[in-house]
Specification:
Structural class: alpha/beta
């Protein structure tokens, strides 16, 4: 199990690296995180799903995933032999960890997912499905209700695998939450896990963070800590002495790794905006501005853009941030109407409209697509009603049921900069609470959006304006598809497999010899 002294210490990427390291040893590996809080989610196989072969995602792309999942009739016209996969949603970190482990991602790997919708409210997803009952329940009352399913999911993964790599959340020393903990020490105790405690030394105070965390743990739980890890170190490791030795004397726990700072490891960020490297040799050939509204979701799908030669990805929170950008992207949102109100409050609505009016490319994905339309209608009181940006003649109707599917689709004949995608098949996933269609009154007057992307079942899930520069899609994962990246940028970006191998190489190089293998060694009989 990987625990951290703080959020952002490096738990997620270290757990991902461990998954690939142990998988390369020929072991059967699965990841696990009891509870995750993130608006970055992926569609995976749900509990009890059928084995029907349906739409899949390319194995070489960032969205690579399992070909299995529950099937449902196509949403729209089309042959009843075609379908899109339907499943569950889990946090992106566990999705990537499963791929690193060479395992099929499923809902048991992240049984509880909290998706923030406001500062004091989150949508609760249990075993991959939204639970209105748990969402309405006071936070401290959820633990007893969900622990049996969390424990069952963990036990099942332990029974099926040689190694389960567990990720904690925040810090195990959050003593104000210890009575309702379901993600840190309770999980460690249940599994008898061998724990690593990782800290971000770049923040400063790393030895105090490690000692303070250890000292606040109950004595029995201290025995579960098998090693300290110093992460994001810059400089000469020799300068750390005698800190690790003194810490060992105080706690009995050795420091088993000092990991150098590594900015561009290539693994998508889960909780924050992506780190983008400066473009070498002068000005970038292309600048892409992604609107970073407060409830941004699925931002990890833009990681491949960070690896395109000559492309600069920037996060926009003001009109000045989009000035001079070649493209503007409106990404997914956990609360479309609230984020649209924020966009207007910043004056970014006018900046986007001016950009589109000048003929420059605008791309909306999921919630961003919904914002590009004329109106958002919410009879279920899910997200709220409101006018859209009016850049596409579409209307969105919010529905109680969330659409969750892995989808293959094909672009039609597109115009403008998006014409490079004409006829291209693409794979990805859909997570949205609402359906979008042509605005009836505008269609009668002759203002009709071009149908740009058609799912395998025949449903339109993408539209383009008449001028050809504004494109809106319900499909996530566009830039994770190698064919799309080649068509748009003529670029080949690193596959996830190469990223995972790089992470495993990194920890193998920097952990003390024998430590990683010892952590996975079977317990003696009777223990």
């Amino acid at each position: 199990m990987v625990l951290g002294t703080t959020s952002g210490a490096g738990k997620s990427w270290l757990a991902t690296a461990l998954c690939r390291y142990y998988a390369r040893q020929g072991l059967k590996v699965a990841p696990f995180k009891a509870q995750n809080m993130s608006n970055n989610a992926r569609v995976v196989q749900g509990e009890g799903r059928s084995d029907t072969q349906c739409a899949t995602v390319g194995a070489e792309g960032f969205a690579a995933g399992p070909p299995q999942g529950e099937t449902r009739p196509p949403r729209g016209a089309g042959s009843d032999t075609q379908c899109a996969t339907v499943g569950a949603e889990i946090g992106s970190a566990q999705y990537f960890q499963a791929l690193a482990a060479r395992a099929e991602p499923d809902a048991r790997m992240n049984p509880l997912l909290l998706k923030p919708e406001a500062d004091t409210h989150s949508q609760v997803v249990l075993m991959g499905q939204v639970s209105a009952e748990l969402t309405a329940l006071p936070w401290r009352e959820r633990g007893p209700r969900v622990w049996p399913q969390i424990a069952a999911a963990l036990d099942a993964l332990r029974a099926e695998n040689d190694v389960v790599v567990i990720e904690g959340a925040g810090s195990p020393a959050e003593i104000n939450l210890s009575d309702c903990d379901i993600v840190n020490l309770r999980v460690a105790r249940h599994a008898g896990a061998r724990c690593l405690l990782v800290t971000d030394i770049d923040r400063g105070g790393a030895f105090a963070h490690l000692f303070g965390t250890w000292a606040l743990l109950p004595e029995a739980d201290c025995a579960l800590i098998h090693g300290f890890v110093l992460n994001k170190f810059r400089g000469d490791p020799a300068l750390l002495a005698p800190g690790p030795q003194m810490l060992h004397q105080l706690t009995g726990v050795p420091t088993v790794a000092t990991l150098p700072m590594w900015w561009q490891h290539g693994l998508p960020e889960e909780d924050g905006v992506l780190h983008t490297a400066p473009v070498p040799n002068g000005a970038p050939a292309r600048t892409v501005a992604v609107i970073a509204w407060p409830r941004i979701s699925n931002l990890d799908e833009f990681q491949p853009l960070c690896n395109v030669p000559g492309l600069h990805l920037k996060w926009a929170r003001s009109p000045a941030d989009v000035a001079g950008a070649d493209w503007i992207i409106l990404p997914g949102s956990k609360n479309t109407v609230q984020d649209l109100a924020w966009l207007r409050a910043q004056g970014l609505d006018r900046a986007v409209a001016a950009h589109a009016g000048a003929g420059h490319p605008v791309l909306g994905i999921c919630g961003g697509l919904q914002m590009l339309g004329e109106a958002l209608i919410d009879p279920q009181a899910i997200d709220g009603n409101g006018p859209g940006l009016g850049l596409l003649p579409l209307v969105t109707l919010f529905e109680a049921e969330k659409a969750l599917s892995r989808t293959t689709a094909r672009f039609g004949e597109l115009a403008g900069v998006w014409g490079k995608l004409s006829g291209v098949s693409v794979s990805g996933y859909e997570i949205h609470q609402g359906q979008t269609a042509q605005h009836p009154a505008m269609a009668r007057s002759g203002d009709v959006a071009r149908e740009a992307l058609q799912a395998a079942g025949g449903e339109c899930i993408g539209w383009q304006n008449a001028a050809g520069n504004v494109l809106g899609l319900y499909l996530h994962g566009l830039f994770e598809d190698a064919t799309v990246m080649q068509a748009l940028f003529g670029a080949h970006v690193p596959t996830l497999d190469s990223v995972f191998d790089g992470l495993a190489d990194f920890i193998e190089q920097h952990f003390e010899p024998g430590v990683l293998d010892a952590l996975a060694r079977p317990l003696p009989a009777g223990d």
